[in-house]
From TrEMBL:
Cofactor: pyridoxal 5'-phosphate
Single GO biological process annotation from the record: amino acid metabolic process
PANTHER family: AMINOTRANSFERASE CLASS I_CLASSII DOMAIN-CONTAINING PROTEIN, BIFUNCTIONAL ASPARTATE AMINOTRANSFERASE AND GLUTAMATE/ASPARTATE-PREPHENATE AMINOTRANSFERASE-RELATED
CDD domains, per the entry: AAT_like (cd00609)
EC numbers for this chain: 2.6.1.-
Keyword annotations from UniProtKB, A to Z: Aminotransferase, Pyridoxal phosphate, Transferase
Entries under SUPFAM superfamilies matching the protein: PLP-dependent transferases
Molecular function (Gene Ontology), one example: pyridoxal phosphate binding
PROSITE patterns associated with the record: AA_TRANSFER_CLASS_1 (PS00105)
Name of the protein in question: Aminotransferase
Amino acid sequence: MNPTDTISDRAKAIMESPMRADLEVYFDALENLYHPSKNPQGAFPLNMAENTLGWNLLKSKIQQIQENEIVPDWASKYGNTLGVDSFRETVAQFLSTFLIGCPIQQEHLAFSSGLTSVIDLSVFLLANEGDTAVFPAPAYPVYKNDIGAIPGIKRFDLQTHDTIDELSAGIPLDEKSLRQALKTLEESGERFKILVLTHPDNPTGAVYSDKQLTLIADWCIDHRIHLVVNEIYGCSLIDTNHPAIAGDYPAQVSFRSFGNIMAAYKSPYLHLWYSFSKDFGISGFRVGLVHSYNEAFLNAYANANLTHSVSNYTQWILQCLLEDHDFIADYLRQYQKELTACYVMVVELLKKHQIPYVPSRGSLFVWIDLSDWLEENTDIGQEALWLDIYHATGVLLTPGEGFGHRQKGHFRLVISYHIPSHLRVALQRLDDYLQKTVRTKD
Ligand SMILES: Cc1ncc(COP(=O)(O)O)c(C=O)c1O
């Protein structure tokens, strides 16, 4: 018997749909990770959105909590599937203070095991199987599986621009492009049910202005389309006033959480996603959340979330950590300083080689255009360049494949995977490669 006959049709489809294109090479790089004394020739997996910059600070704080605090009895029991009340209260205060900037209430929050679970469950509850969610391209490749594998929602990549220099003042998403997407989808018999924005964006690091978000929210509410803004990188902000990069930001657009617009509108069509995986570099804790004023959605979420809920022990540790606002303020200050330092290092290399990039305002990335080095302007050419860089330098970028943008030769570089002194070695290797390798467009 064919082993695939033993599984469901859904399982067969999922088997055929790998989560992302770079996993195999990533595991190869992990086997050979760079270390200055133990493995100086090792690899740099700058493809995976991990953040190690603040871990030492967090680790000692978490160790202190485990040594000094008494584990509450609720940590060992079942609890509210949306999250334990005291934890939800602590996170509501954290979000109000450090992300959103206006008060939000715990009853408008639901937690699942990582944002991946939140995405899966949110779209499952907001749309029907076969409906479409729209993402301005380029967008996080894994959204496709998050919304597709179990909820059965389709991904539509909306092209808002051709070249990356069109993104220097932000993502040009407006009413016209949304109307066009709606028309295209309706003409092909598809239902546009959800619009997802990542703010700050993965991979471009761009942010949406308040005015733009308000216009988009109005349009979505008018068309009964759910607008979800993913602020997973909301505290990973670059200091755009840093003298080495300040000239890259002529337009005064700074990050302001969508939570403010939600608080003013309280519409059932507006939602916000957040997770502690990135800003706090604790992807292994698996804690994500949705913030929404849609009561029916949250009631359904409570009933469906038992399969996705966060361990109470993890909620307890995180609660202790987030209660200490002085610590969090200090952590975020130091983290953003280090993130900016890494970003500046990368940008200096890009400037040296006149490589186009999107000036980032936040996130863990720089989105760069290496199309001048492509042998051929195709997916195959893009993959060949990606592997050539990896084999020659040990530096693994994220290839553009899966981000949904039509241009070839764009790559994402993660600035926070390594501490600055290690990142410097990776950049030196890239520098040597770029000097030696002839641009095909020269
Ligand atoms: C935009 C975006 N959303 C969601 C996730 C997944 O988050 P989590 O680790 O909390 O599941 C990622 C991880 O890279 C991401 O970049």
